[in-house]
């Protein structure tokens, strides 16, 4: 993206922020951030209107005041409006019963100074399934805070979801955090979402076989679970976990045990301060046919196949959300489709920051997600390569996202509203590089990739080499349908053609293709009209996304 466009979009974002604050004051929108649902779609309402989370998650150990200075510049360079960052149990309650919110207060003050919202990640009993972020007085006291055991009574690394004292202690700490947030942020809405625990489940062991767990496993499946979680196999309609869920019983029981534990933490936290809450997930394979756990993912986590169990056991958790770290486009598409359900809004709280994920922003936001947040965004020089980008230093980290974020930041409120109204669509280039189509009522958009801005691949003398930057899949397009014939289109490394599907037999062409931006009040400002070479070969988006307002006509 050119510096000029970057500065203009940054200016527009700041102006929009100011306008947002003014509009909020005018509307007197004091309600805490919350979710609203309509027609199977959900919006995150912040300051009275749907909000689009253009997020960035800092590295795990960036959750200390001394490091925050390396976090904000990365978010600014990326045009992110929200920081996701841990609040660790070990840092707020290093000594049992003595709470220290110095870090939280510094974080909130700096977030406000930098004009960012916050999504706080409660690293409590489980962080990537482990108790690594629990205070030492928890993680080394197996008697009081028991770990899971296997069939032979061997101790696992993972804390048991049947530890009453563990639950009581985690809940107490989380309630203390939420009570503190209610005191310092209820009027400010800096914090907009809470993540409860992090990538829960257990590696290497399908469930807890301790005495308490075993007794629960032999009891009937609760009615609420039966109502929400169909069995993948034909079994008894009621009965014990094994009777109902057969070979899936161990995993499904463990999901229920962990979800029930999280429910206790979340519901008590919401009583103190009712922010929306979610859990994130280290995914299982979304493409291969469903099969019982075979040590191939963290059992008991909110994988796509047990979302019903989480809904039943943890009604105070609004969303089970996918963390995208498998770069295969088929996995990403299948995962998004499986996690987006009328009872489970799409929200992508973590995604690799490797360059290939830049295009995924368009697919996720086009699908109407509450937002998205690449992981590892700060200037600490740490990188989680090979999950994330190889490059660890400076602005290269944010480069795959900065241009698309700038565009979405300049229309974040309108986009969130269109998404809530079900008007948005998104495409990310597949690994097969093939064209993709988007149904838009009487129109169909065809998105193609590795296109030069002029001409057609069918030409005999068309250059064989792809345009620079498209050697690997990098294309993405997002479309909002404002009216039957009117669209807002943005994208990168992609060509969009729009054809009339209905009524058949009529010719169609562009009426207007305006390049421009949305002003502080959300009004469209046209900068120029694309015609001639700029439209004869479809709408061609380069590495620098722009916003087009397109009107189609028929003859
Ligand atoms: C997913 C986890 O949720 C993050 O905290 C982090 O550990 C990444 N994996 C890997 O960098």
Structure description:
By secondary structure, the chain is of the alpha/beta class. Helix content is 30%, strand content 25%. The strands form five sheets. An eight-stranded parallel barrel has the order 4-5-6-9-10-11-12-13, surrounded by seven helices. The structure holds (2R,3S,4R,5S)-2-(hydroxymethyl)piperidine-3,4,5-triol (DGJ). (2R,3S,4R,5S)-2-(hydroxymethyl)piperidine-3,4,5-triol binds at residues 60, 128, 198-199, 323, 350, 375, 384, 387.
Brief characterization of the structure:
The chain has 555 residues and is of the alpha/beta class. The chain contains 17 helices and 23 strands. Helix 11 (249-272) packs across helix 12.
Secondary-structure blueprint of this entry?
Layout: H1 3-27, E1 34-38, E2 41-46, E3 49-50, E4 53-57, H2 65-68, H3 72-78, E5 82-88, H4 89-92, H5 102-113, E6 117-127, H6 136-139, E7 147-149, E8 155-159, H7 164-185, E9 191-198, H8 211-217, H9 223-228, H10 241-245, H11 249-272, E10 277-282, H12 307-313, E11 319-324, H13 329-339, E12 348-351, H14 360-366, E13 371-374, H15 399-409, H16 412-420, E14 424-428, E15 436-440, E16 443-448, E17 476-483, E18 486-492, E19 494-500, E20 508-518, E21 524-529, H17 533-536, E22 539-541, E23 547-554
Parallel strand pairs: 4-5, 4-13, 5-6, 6-9, 9-10, 10-11, 11-12, 12-13
Antiparallel strand pairs: 1-2, 2-3, 7-8, 14-17, 15-16, 16-19, 17-18, 18-23, 19-22, 20-21, 20-23
Helix pairs in contact: 1-15, 7-11, 11-12
Bound molecules: (2R,3S,4R,5S)-2-(hydroxymethyl)piperidine-3,4,5-triol.
(2R,3S,4R,5S)-2-(hydroxymethyl)piperidine-3,4,5-triol binds at residues 60, 128, 198-199, 323, 350, 375, 384, 387.
